[in-house]
Amino acid sequence: xxxxxxxxxxxxxxxxxxxxxxxxxxxxxxxxxxxxxxxxxxxxxxxxxxxxxxxxxxxxxxxxxxxxxxxxxxxxxxxxxxxxxxxxxxxx
Length: 92
Description:
Elements: H1 10-37, E1 66-67, E2 74-75
Antiparallel strand pairs: 1-2
């Protein structure tokens, strides 16, 4: 296969991008564990495992994840405005 001068080798470019993709995936997994799996009930301290109600005491928990109706970005619990686009959020 003939290579054109000045163009990067696609395999080399892929190898250079792979560590970045792996770091991003690790970061996303860690965030999930921190917010969903490792979350604790504010009432009894039991692990909530991303559920809507505490498996230990039955207390209603804050919504695990909400998304902006305009841009689709993930919202912080209780957010009244989207941090990405600024759209006012409708309370459920």
